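Appendix C: a fully annotated inverse folding record. The material below is reproduced so that readers can follow the format used throughout the book. The structure is listed first as tokens, followed by the designed sequence.
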């Protein structure tokens, strides 16, 4: 953190502390979200090609603020974690894991004051390992008629729901190694990869951090390989350039397979 930024932080802390002592206003979640965002930005690790954000945030609150947050600590932490992921995605910061937020009581703080300590810890286990430690097979497997019929029924039910998107209805559904729920593609660009900032996170060590993306262009959905290490396959065929997606195409990356469907 630069000298000017340190000065600004010190001044802001002094002002916030003074207001906390005089007015005793309770801390609001939106204020805490801003403070966590500032803590993320102030403690980035800068490398030649990445800006790595902390993934552990210990939040120290006054007794009154802690009593306010503690009953719903789990849901509050989850919402604040989601907010940090959005910040990292927008600013292209790297997060090695989902942000962990922990609340602590500090009787030395007055109402409205917050102290945030950050650290960056590496994941304890390898990403993409399956139960039992055996990697999933790489082969693309065909969907059975029964599986396809069930999935089409789910898509039809989803299509009956109102949508604010101007794009034609389309879905991406994970069906290997486990069955997922159909995900509506309601934005022009959908990012897929191992990094938590992607729209679709693929927890597989053979999937690159930013592996692929689906773009809606000229009335058609296209699949792009973003220079991934292990490539992307459509219906078992590796792609070398942008490929238009057709209904019931199978997209494979690592051990994960998705089915693309469009109405």
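Designed amino acids, in order:
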């Amino acid at each position: 953190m630069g000298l000017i930024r340190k000065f600004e932080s010190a001044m802001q802390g002094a002002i916030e502390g003074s207001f906390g002592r005089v007015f005793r206003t309770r801390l609001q979640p939106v204020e805490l979200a801003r403070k966590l965002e500032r803590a993320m930005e102030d403690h980035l690790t800068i490398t030649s090609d990445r800006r790595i954000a902390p993934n552990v945030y210990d939040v120290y609150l006054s007794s009154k603020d802690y009593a306010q947050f503690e009953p719903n600590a789990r849901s509050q932490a989850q919402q604040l974690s989601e907010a940090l992921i959005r910040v990292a995605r927008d600013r292209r910061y790297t997060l090695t894991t989902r942000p962990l937020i922990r609340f602590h009581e500090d009787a030395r703080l007055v109402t409205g004051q917050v102290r945030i300590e950050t650290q960056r810890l590496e994941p304890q286990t390898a990403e993409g390992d399956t139960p039992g430690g055996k990697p999933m097979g790489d082969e693309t497997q065909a969907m059975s008629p029964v599986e396809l019929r069930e999935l089409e029924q789910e898509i039809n039910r989803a299509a009956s729901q109102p949508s604010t998107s101007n794009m034609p209805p389309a879905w991406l559904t994970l069906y290997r190694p486990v069955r997922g729920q159909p995900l509506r593609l309601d934005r022009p660009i959908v990012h897929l990869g191992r990094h938590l900032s992607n729209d679709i996170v693929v927890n597989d060590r053979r999937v690159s951090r930013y592996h692929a993306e689906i773009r809606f262009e000229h009335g058609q959905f296209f699949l792009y390989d973003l220079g991934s290490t292990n490539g992307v396959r459509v219906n078992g065929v590796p792609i070398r350039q942008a490929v238009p997606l057709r209904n019931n195409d199978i997209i494979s990356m690592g051990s994960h397979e998705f089915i693309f469907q469009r109405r």
